Amino acid sequence: MAKDAAILMAPNSAQAFEYNETHFHQSAEEGGIQGEATAPTGLIHAVLANNEMMETVLKNRGTPTIVYKIDGKIKVQRGLPSSQSAIYTILTGK
């Protein structure tokens, strides 16, 4: 939750997310951004609601979970894609 808050509260959330991913620590299995000690109640509720949606609707709690559209249909990739070909399909829809 602390890292979620840090990313969502950052002036540029996309940049904070990218930093977190590019500075991922393999040995600790955690991103590179420092967590926030406190967060607004509304933000905490939004993150918890998103987590609940992932578990209830997508039947998944793990990461990565990728939701994408291909041929007009919504697809869900649970866990790492199995190949470069699968990653290409997810990213391009082809």
Adjacency order of strands in the biggest sheet: 1-2
User: What's the overall geometry?
Assistant: globular
- Biggest pleated-sheet summary: 2 strands, antiparallel
Order of helices and strands: HHHEEH
Number of strands: 2
Mind telling me the C-alpha Rg?
Answer: 15 Å
Q: List the domain count as a whole number.
A: 2
Structural class, from helix and strand content?
alpha+beta
End-to-end distance, in Å? 35 Å
The number of helical segments is 4
Overall pLDDT metric = 88
Strand content: 5-15%
* Poorly predicted ranges: none
Give the helix level as a range of percent. Answer: 40-55%
Task: Give a structural overview.
Helix 1 (2-9) crosses helix 2 (13-22). The chain has helices at 2-9, 13-22, 41-56, 84-92; strands at 65-70, 73-78. The chain folds into 2 domains: 1-57, no CATH class; 61-94, no CATH class. The protein is α+β, with helices and mostly antiparallel strands and 94 residues long. A two-stranded antiparallel ribbon has the order 1-2.
